[in-house]
User: What shape does this take?
Amino acid sequence: MTGARGHVALPKAAALVEALPWLKLFSGRTIVVKYGGNAMTSPALQQAFAEDVVFLRYAGVRVVVVHGGGPQITAHLARLGVDSEFRGGFRVTTADTMQVVRMVLVGQVNSEVVASINAHGPFAVGLSGEDAHLFTAERRDASVDGLPVDIGLVGEVVDVQPSIVTALLDGGKVPVVATIARGVDGEVFNVNADTAAAALAVALGAEKLVVLTDVEGLYAEWSGDEQQSEVLSELTADALEVLLPTLSSGMVPKMEACLRAVRGGVPRAHVLDGRVAHSLLLELFTDEGVGTMVLPS
Assistant: This one.
């Protein structure tokens, strides 16, 4: 009877052995994960993401979570009777909208992410990009049909002071960062979470940037049907730069983030399907991997 149970469990042992070289590679290394989209709004996926983060923490990986909150911001604005406008993949952020963005990202979403991780132990600590001047940003435009357009109080990270994040990592904690940033003149900016995660990954000398999305990865040619579209398993920074002008507006910030990361010294960046439970562990600890990987040229 014992032997039968042992045979049933053999696939689990095989999975653990497959993970061994990856555990050796990533233990003690820093990984920055951008968390958002459906992975953030589905309770089951929220739980799976928190489990993945805690697993990584116990495996010795130094995990930093940088989160968005687009669906939550849109829902809150709708309750206030305010329509959401996007240009070039970025939310147009007025002064009034900025107050809602700040309240939702820092007061609601950040607390929820921290709580979901801390349900498994005292690991997560919530931060804003304003804390200890973690992020400093300057106003940026978006690009629509090759032309710059004004998107309001949306910032581009121009400086990162990662000491507060490093101190938390050294203390065995998981920093969870909301992407609000101070400006050099005292303004407060809404910063796209993809680009903020890339800037932080570069500043920390991270081993990897992982961007969770609502698609399987980057498609070679988007046919309008996920089942019929081929996902690129990997590509170089130079190849990605050529593709960028052809991408949908929603994918541009994500792929720009991957490009910024690898051009800034991060060895690899990944775009993963956040709709798949435990996609983070599948990418990090299996031989096949998932999603799209961007490598330096």
Summary: The chain has a mean pLDDT of 88. The CA atoms of residues 64 and 87 lie 28 Å apart. DSSP finds ten helices and 14 strands in the chain.
